């Protein structure tokens, strides 16, 4: 399916060559996918004298998938076709001080219902709902969210959702893994096997893929790279740790760099992370000295943390994603590369590419829906 989405229209021989399967096996799988309604024959290709070959592509009228991105300030829902093209979307704001599980579940259900209505799709055609929650998701479907205003601890989110939408399968995961799957299928990591996708926002984390598959760890909590130590006796993080990567390259940490560089900076909006990060990006592009110092400092800290990751995991590619990376990624990338090159071992560094996320839509809801498709196929 990944090859079909990337390369359609294709013929069976193309699929066999690209995947390493035999033509017979590829043909059998194509027949299964056709029966499931996930792919369609859309025409024929001349074969140089033999029988014309059927051209294959994801079925536009096939089953539907839903992806949900829960962030600290919103719930974003999208409905997709089998090619993972967006058919409809809905979004509900989450108020900063009203994030009880019941309140969040209600917003998710409303968003799902709204998006389904917009897409004009019968619920029986939906393969499932992929939900990304910003925290740790246990193997039993419980969720722990460590956002400043949430204070969730082992909330039975999966069961709360299935009670409200009993007619649709629900898959629960976190944005680190959703973003990683989106990159593997649609982004900079397509065609790569060993990948690290670093989400930079209020919090910081790493989604990891090994041999083309997500690495989850023993308790489904792998990827807490943001809470690895960067500075001995450094800043205290929101989880109570000291000197974490997150406190130096997450949005609050970048704001602290700015406050330490220029306490009276007009770029600093103490109660608004987004406004501060956007102001820094604009000022850096205009050559503002304070903004340039903050960007350089952030890039150096991020480069050291990435060098540790390169030495530990030896990925083929590291992708920077998340709203902070969207705003500041191109500015910090030169400092990141220069610093990582200095601190990483030569051999793994030479085998690693560092890139910005190229996906021009919400990678988390896209990845959440793709996880549903992967689960269905497996």
UniProtKB/TrEMBL annotation:
Entry-linked Gene3D superfamilies: 3.30.420.40, Winged helix-like DNA-binding domain superfamily/Winged helix DNA-binding domain
Entries under InterPro entries matching the protein: ATPase_NBD, ROK, ROK_cs, WH-like_DNA-bd_sf, WH_DNA-bd_sf
Lineage: superkingdom: Bacteria
Transmembrane segments: none
Family matches, as SUPFAM superfamilies: Actin-like ATPase domain, Winged helix' DNA-binding domain
UniProt family annotation: Belongs to the ROK (NagC/XylR) family.
Entry protein name: ROK family transcriptional regulator
Originating organism: Streptomyces vastus
């Amino acid at each position: 399916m990944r090859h079909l989405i990337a390369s359609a229209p294709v013929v069976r021989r193309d699929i066999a060559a690209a995947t390493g399967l035999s033509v017979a096996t590829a043909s059998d799988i194509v027949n299964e996918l056709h029966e499931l309604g996930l792919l369609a024959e859309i025409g024929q290709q001349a074969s140089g004298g033999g029988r014309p070959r059927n051209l294959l592509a994801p079925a536009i009228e096939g089953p539907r998938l839903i992806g949900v991105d829960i962030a600290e300030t919103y719930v974003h829902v999208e409905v997709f076709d089998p090619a993972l093209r967006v058919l409809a979307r809905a979004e509900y704001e989450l108020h900063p001080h009203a994030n009880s599980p019941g309140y969040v579940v209600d917003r998710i259900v409303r968003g799902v219902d709204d998006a389904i209505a917009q897409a004009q799709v019968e619920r029986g055609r939906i393969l499932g709902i992929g939900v990304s929650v910003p925290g740790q998701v246990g193997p039993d479907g419980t969720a722990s969210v460590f956002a400043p205003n949430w204070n969730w601890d082992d909330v039975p989110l999966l069961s709360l959702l299935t009670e409200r939408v009993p007619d649709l399968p629900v898959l629960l995961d976190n944005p680190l893994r959703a973003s990683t799957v989106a990159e593997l299928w649609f982004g900079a990591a397509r065609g790569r096997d060993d990948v690290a996708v670093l989400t930079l926002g209020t919090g910081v984390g790493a989604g990891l893929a090994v041999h083309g598959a997500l690495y989850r760890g023993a308790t489904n909590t792998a990827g807490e790279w943001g809470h690895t130590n960067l500075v001995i006796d450094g800043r205290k993080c929101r989880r109570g740790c000291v000197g974490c990567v997150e406190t130096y390259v997450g949005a609050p940490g970048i704001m602290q760099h700015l406050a330490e560089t220029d306490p009276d900076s007009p770029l600093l909006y103490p109660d608004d992370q987004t406004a501060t990060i956007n102001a820094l990006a604009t000022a850096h592009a205009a050559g503002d000295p304070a903004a340039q110092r903050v960007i350089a400092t952030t890039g150096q800290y991020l480069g050291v943390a990435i060098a540790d990751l390169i030495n530990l995991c030896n990925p083929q590619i590291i992708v920077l994603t998340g709203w902070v990376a969207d705003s500041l990624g191109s500015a910090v990338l030169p400092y990141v590369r220069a610093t990582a090159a200095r601190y990483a071992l030569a051999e793994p560094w030479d085998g690693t590419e560092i890139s910005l996320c190229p996906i021009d839509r919400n990678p988390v809801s896209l990845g959440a829906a793709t996880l549903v498709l992967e689960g269905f196929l497996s």
